[in-house]
Amino acid sequence: MSISEQDLGTAPVVTQTDVPTEVGRAAWAEDTRRVLTRGLLVRASLAAPGEAQALRFRALHLNLPLVVAVAQRLELTDAERLRTEHAALDGLHEAVHLFDPYGDAEFSFFATAFVEWRVRTALRRARHPIRRGRLAVVPRISRRSARPKRR
Length: 151
Fold this sequence. Notes:
single chain; mainly alpha; 6 helices; globular
């Protein structure tokens, strides 16, 4: 059947379900981010070191909204967000490097745990700064105690 033989009749009716909503757009964006992240990290695992680093960098940038989501869930103030931004990015970077793209886990769940842990740790340290005099003291091992004991 050619185009000239088709019955053009009336225009298709657009219903409310055909129009994308904000919820539909957010779900689409999340699904796209999920698929692209896994694809980038699979390619990074097979690529040469320089290209692998570039692919991981793309995956990191693609998942920056996870940092915002964690900050919103923890209800951080603007000052706390600024103070913990670096820690959150460190957590996301760590997640990108440790994620197994061949496994069953979703990257967003995996990375959220890293980001949240880093943010909570940074907040705890900011509220209770560690003074140099209160650092954990590592006991010195004398030469005598380091030797194996004779029987």
